[in-house]
Amino acid sequence: MCGIVGILSSRPVAHDLVDALRRLEYRGYDSAGIATVEDGRLQRRRAEGKLRNLETRLLSEPLQGHIGIGHTRWATHGGPSERNAHPHMSARVSVVHNGIIENFRELKAELTAAGHVFESDTDTEAVVHLITHELGKGLGPVEAVKASLKRLRGAFALAILFAGENDMMIAARLGSPLVIGHGNGNSEMYLGSDAIALAPFTDTVTYLEEGDWAVLQRTGSVIYDRDGNAVERPPVKSQASALLVDKGNHRHFMAKEIYEQPEVISHTLAHYIDMSEGRVRIPDLGIDLASVPRVTISACGTAYYAGLVAKYWIERFARVPVEIDIASEMRYREAPLPEGGIALFVSQSGETADTLATLRYCKANGQRIAAVVNVRTSTIAREADVVLPTLAGPEIGVASTKAFTCQLTALACFAIALGRARGTIDEARERELVDALIEVPRHITDELTTEPRYEALAHTLSKSHDVLYLGRGVSFPLAMEGALKLKEISYLHAEGYAAGELKHGPIALIDENMPVIVVAPMDDLFEKTVSNMQEVAARGGKIVLISNAPDDAAGCALANHIQVPTAHVFTSPILYAVPIQLIAYHTAVVMGTDVDQPRNLAKSVTVE
Ligand code: G6P
Q1: Taking a C-beta distance cutoff of 8 angstroms, is the pair 566, 522 a contact?
Q2: 482: three-class secondary structure by DSSP
Q3: Distance from CA of residue 103 to its chain's centroid?
Q4: pLDDT tens-digit profile of 550-602?
Q5: The CATH number of the domain where 207 resides is what?
Q6: Average per-residue pLDDT for the chain
Q7: Ligand 1 within 6 A of 598 CB?
Q8: CA of 302 to the centre of ligand 1 (A)
Q9: Is the distance from CB of 486 to CB of 544 less than 8 angstroms?
Q10: In a domain, 320, yes or no
Q11: Quick check: pTM over 0.85?
Q12: CATH (domain of 484)
C-alpha cells in the first residue's frame, strides 16, 4: 500500500511534500522519497524506513524545487530498500506510483532490449523507462505519457515530473485513488492519494475517475478520460480535515468501498504474493501443513460466505477436507475436532462474539488457530496463533463489500499455500493461479465502468417482493451473499439457493413476478446451471444472468444480462462479488433506504 503526493507552488515544496506524506503514512512506511525539478534538472532524496529518515536526509541535503512529487511506500515488487524506494527516475522523467503494473516483466524485457538500464526491482521503473522511451522518439511530455498509459496493464495511480518542465506534472488513475487539490490564488496545485493528505493546503478537491489522467500546472489542470477527451470533473469541498475518513465524491461509504476494491485487493495481494517470483507466502502456522487432517472454518454473515468459498478452493486445490459452520451454531455443537487440525476464522472486525467464542472452543480442543481479520488489533487477531490480515482499510458501510473481496483474496492465497505444501499444486500451477489473482484488480476496474447499467435493473427489482439468487459450486456462496446484501440494505426479501436444489422446493415460488438472479461463470458447471435457468424460464420467471457467457448461451430469454469479464475460473468468486454488490446498492438507493446504516443492523456484533 503506498501514498503519493504532488505539489506545484511558488515556493520550495519539499517541506509541504513531507507534511502531506505524513498524513499518508498509514498507507505504508517501508521507505519514502521526494523528487523536485531544480534549474531544469530532476533531483531526488530517498530513505529506507519511516518518513523521519527522509526528513533527516533532507536536513543535510535539502531540495529547493518549486514543483515536486513524493511517495511513502508499502513494498510490493522488490524489498524495502532505498534503491527500490520511489520516486524512480531517468535523466528525463521521475515517477511515483501506487498499485501494480501487471505487465512490467514484458515491458522491462522490451525496454532493456532497447537499451534502458533498470536500477531497481520495482514494477514502477518500467513506467519511467517507457515514458523516457517515448520522449526519445521526439514526443512532448503529454503525448509521451498518453502513449505510455496505453501500454500499461494493471491498477495504478501515478504522478510524473519531467526534467526541463518547471510548471507541469502529469497524474493518472486506474484502479487506485487520486485527487487533485486546488490551491489559493491560482498559483498552487496539489495531488494526493486522498483528500486527507491535502487537508492542510486546500479543501477544494477534484476526484479523478477511473481511467482519467490530468495535466497540472500552477494555474489549473486539464483532465482527460481514458479515450483522451478533455472532460470536466467538478471540484467539491472535502470534509477530510474534519472527518479523517470521508466519502470522496461518492454518495455513500458503501459506494466508495465498492470502488476501493481494485486498490485494497492489490494491497492484500501484495501482502501474500512475492510479485517478482510469482509465489505465495503465508506466515508460518507452526505445524506441518503437509499432514493437516482437516481445516475447520467458522464465521458469521458475509465473512461466513467468504469461508464457504474457501472450502471449495481448499478442497479442490489442496485436497484437504474442510468443515465449515456458522459460528453461532458451531460454538454449541461440541463438534469433535481432529488432532493436528487447523481452525480458520474469518472476521472483518475481529470482534464478533460468536466467532470469538468458537475460536476459543477450537483452541481449547487443540486446533491451530488462524484468523483472517481486517482489524489487526482486534481480539480475534490477538487470540489467534497466526493472523492472515486483509488490507481492506476501514470499512464504514455496514454491508460488507471490500472486506469480503479482500477475505476471498487472502483465502485464495491460503488455499494455494496449502496446496503447495501438500504437493497438489506444483510450481507452474502456483504461477498460473498467482497470475490469475494479480489480474483481479484490473478486471474489477473494468466491471466498475458498467455501473450505470445497474440503475434500470434496480428499478425493476425494487418493485418485487422476493428475489431468488441461484449459484452452483463456488458460485453458491455468492448467491447467498447476493441475497444477504439485498436483504440487508434494500429490505427486500431474498434467498440464495444452490441451483441444483431449485427443483426441491423454491421452484414452487416461481412465476412472472419473481426475479431470479443467476450467478454463473462459464466454468465446468455452467451447462448444469443452464438447465436450471430453463426450468425457471419455462415457468415465466424473470432471469437476470451474471456471467461472462454470451447472451445466447442460456438458451432462454433473459430479462437482464450482466456481463462479467472473462478471467481464470479460480478468481470468479472475487469478480462475481462486484455485480451482486452493485445490484444491492442501486436497489437500496432506489428504495431510499439508509444504505450505510440500514435499520436494525450493526457493523460489529459483539453480543450473542
Ligand atoms: C455483521 C455485519 C456483517 C458481517 C458480520 C460478521 O452482521 O453487519 O457485515 O459480515 O457481522 O462480522 P465480522 O466483523 O466478524 O466479519
Answers
A1: yes
A2: helix
A3: 18
A4: 988 988 889 999 999 999 999 999 999 999 999 999 999 999 999 988 888 77
A5: 3.60.20.10
A6: 93
A7: no
A8: 6
A9: no
A10: yes
A11: no
A12: 3.40.50.10490
